[in-house]
# Entry
Amino acid sequence: MPIIVNLDVMMAKRKMSLNELSEKVDLTLANLSILKTGKAKAVRFSTLEAICNALDCQPGDILEFRQTDG
# Structure
């Protein structure tokens, strides 16, 4: 998928654990883990907003588009 989720990178920059972020955004560890590992097929704007608020970042810091060949 050409959309890359850089949640793990932002969490590392902010030195925030998955558990801590889960509590701050009120999202289950399982769902946050799916997003973190890039297995999510969609993300709600409200979830993205909560994550950006918790990590003090922009949506572009979390999501990245990479052109694929072909």
Observations:
- The mean pLDDT is 94.
- The first helix runs from residue 7 to 13.
- Residues 3-58 form a domain with the 434 Repressor (Amino-terminal Domain) fold (CATH 1.10.260.40).
- The chain has one domain: 3-58.
